[in-house]
Give the backbone structure.
Amino acid sequence: MAKRKPTRSVNKTTLLVMGEGEHDKAFLSHMKGIYHERRSGSKVTLDFSSGGSPHDIIKDTVKKSRHVDYDQKFILMDSDVPVKQQDIKAADDSGISILYSKPLCLEGMLLSILAQNIPNTAQKCKSALHPQLSDNPALSKSYEPLLAKPVLDETSHATIVKLRSLLGVKQKK
């Protein structure tokens, strides 16, 4: 009888990062493509909620992560609509951390990283950023070359710094 090789068990850190919508997921995929190393020992799952209120997004994330034992769970959420304290508590109780796209929304945050004028509404931010992208904002490739690695490496925006860290880049202390 042939001896069986023992199966290798690799303990991976599992991470869920939820975007508020498909544009958020596309940008997160762009960042994952830049920063995540396949052999890093971590498994990153990206997903998105179908928008709505912060309550709906948190509820959707709790539901989507309920049956998977992620080590860490995050939501990239716009900051133009205040999150109620009970929703923050629901996220905390489920082990979900909220990362805010500031100012206003994902597009406002990206305009600020590019040192461009930030309009006063989320819709105007979208109208300002989307024509600068190389394709549909729901596609991760659209964020290159406007938000290439050197641009993302240089920013000190707290949310981008945290995402770089989560996706695999060790930050200098």
In short: The chain is about 40% helix and 15% strand.
